[in-house]
Amino acid sequence: MAEVDRRQFVRGAAMAPVAAQLGWLRGREKDKRLLLVGTQTLSGTSKGIYAYRWEPETGELHEAGLHPGAPTAGTPGNPGLAAESENPTYLAVDPEAKYLFAANELDDFGGEKSGAVSAFAIDAAAAKLTPINEVSALGAGTCNVTVDHEGRSVFCANYVGGSVSSFVINPNGQISDAVSHFQYQGHGPNQARQEAPHAHRVTVSPDNRFLLVNDLGLDCIHIYHLDAASAKLTPNDPPEWKSAPGSGPRALRFHPNGKIAYCVCEMAANVVVLNWDAKKGTLKAIQTVSLVPDSYHGPERGCDIVVTRSGRFAYAADRDYDCLVSFAVDPQDGKLTMLARTSCGGQVPRDLALDPTEKWVLAANTKSDNIAVFARDETTGKLAETGKSFPQAKPQCLVWA
Fold this sequence. Notes:
Blueprint (H helix, E strand, L loop, with lengths): L2 H10 L5 H4 L1 H7 L4 E6 L8 E8 L4 E4 L16 E5 L3 E6 L5 E6 L11 E8 L4 E9 L5 E6 L5 E6 L4 E6 L11 E4 L15 E6 L5 E6 L4 E8 L4 E11 L6 E6 L5 E6 L4 E8 L4 E9 L11 E6 L5 E6 L4 E7 L6 E8 L5 E6 L5 E6 L4 E6 L12 E4 L3 E6 L1
Antiparallel strand pairs: 1-2, 1-29, 2-3, 2-4, 5-6, 6-7, 7-8, 9-10, 10-11, 11-12, 13-14, 14-15, 15-16, 17-18, 18-19, 19-20, 21-22, 22-23, 23-24, 25-26, 26-27, 27-28
């Protein structure tokens, strides 16, 4: 299918139900076998973005080649460096898996108090990334990046800067300078964690008409109208959804039906189930579920959530209790019923990923320097009590290409 035909397909599908609209892209997901890993590089133990070959039959990860000039390959399970990059803590791949975009979580870029967003061309066969360009995020601590469903716009959240920026993706994968930028003001009730705005996640709505920005510092999700062709953002009316005070909304994931969203609140260590009105661009809370048991009184930080393509199961993580939580999803209203809590297979999980076959759940455990892989029962939704472990210095994000 030619480039223009693919884009026409996605645009034309906008009138179809969300599940059907994304079906073509989900079909492509099943074919992906390259795992790209964003990492923290400030400690010096990691150098950038790493690559693994994935074996879905066995749940094994193998090094996928080395960056030119790197040392000789290590043992299986130890990834090769796909590209050097400074603190690429979050990654996003365009719908055709041609380009990868990284959030470079920096406090200084080009002499400015800012992080960066960088673009790479993906060579899946060689398991290498070729740098295209890097631009200012217009805010420090750039911690998250995402691409719209047509592959024409990219967005970033700046945690320290408390802001969001949008960019156009040119036909060659190059990122434009920022098209839209919104700087937030204010603080939350927790003076230690919410002394300022902290944009943490950027999420495009299933119909590609809105961008949602989780703000841990202001206890809200900012909502914008999106013009995907120009990457221009304009505030919605109303412009935000407010969470419980001091809860710290961190992550967001839509259900495949396009009517439900799941917000992981870091500070409250819970998942808020939200009704999404796609016409008005509004959210309404219908359920809140804790990630940790009532008997636990230690530190707790909710982290991430993923949902199966069938919409029947969801998996979330807490990065202080170091657990994975399996949920059954009600097919009528999207509410969650906890199935089990299991170990994350390490310490401080920062990101979760379902493998392309959805037979496995992967956790990026930053403090223990490993990627844990857990078998998933596709009928019951439960995860294996123990998983496989693969060494990786300071993993932060897992994406497929």
